[in-house]
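Z., the sequence and structure:
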Amino acid sequence: MIEGGRVRLNRWQQAAVAVGSAVGALLDPRRADLIAALGETTGKPAFERVLQRMKTSPEGRAILLERPRVISTNVGHAWDQPPNTFGAAYARFMGSRNFSPDDRPPVRFMDTDELAYVAMRAREVHDFWHTLFDLPTNLIGESALKVIEFEQMYLPMCMLSVIGGTARFNEKQRTLFFQHYFPWAIRAGMQCTDLMCIYYEQHFHEDLEDVPEDVGDNPCSSCSEKEWCMTS
């Protein structure tokens, strides 16, 4: 199910991998493998809580039972959906950036198959969340999404990513983020539905605004610098 196999670590090994991954990710934020390793070695309690929430949700239980993977062979039908749908919006998001759903690194440091799947699912639905919240993939947009992810899952890696991301902001980016994106992301993460309990692939045909209904507007929808905000 999870390519690459898993590696069992004792506590000292987990700590060493976590510290090494954190340092490496700060030096090179493009290293998705290091960010993934940091999330896994520091996030077991958070993923256990997510797992329990999914077990209490009808859609969450269906996801755990069927274990869908967000890979190109499984989500290709998004490209066939009408323009106003969630699937079409996701296809536009991926196509405009030349992203592939197959590029996510494998899960390596989770103790059980069930937790490994939850960690993989959280990693693979990231681009669905970009689509739902209409967030760019620049430094500001990624930092805002990490705030939402932290509010939803309490993964330490998410907060560390926000700290590392904001440290690289210039003055204009920092002002824009903390005036518009950060407070919006806090509200969105706290108030919207449980994002890990949505079977996104089954909602591709639905209107984007209805999936889920309570996501809310983009943080810069009323911002005088919206164009700069979405591209910088």
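The chain has one domain: 11-231. The chain is about 60% helix and 0% strand.

Let me know what you think.
H.
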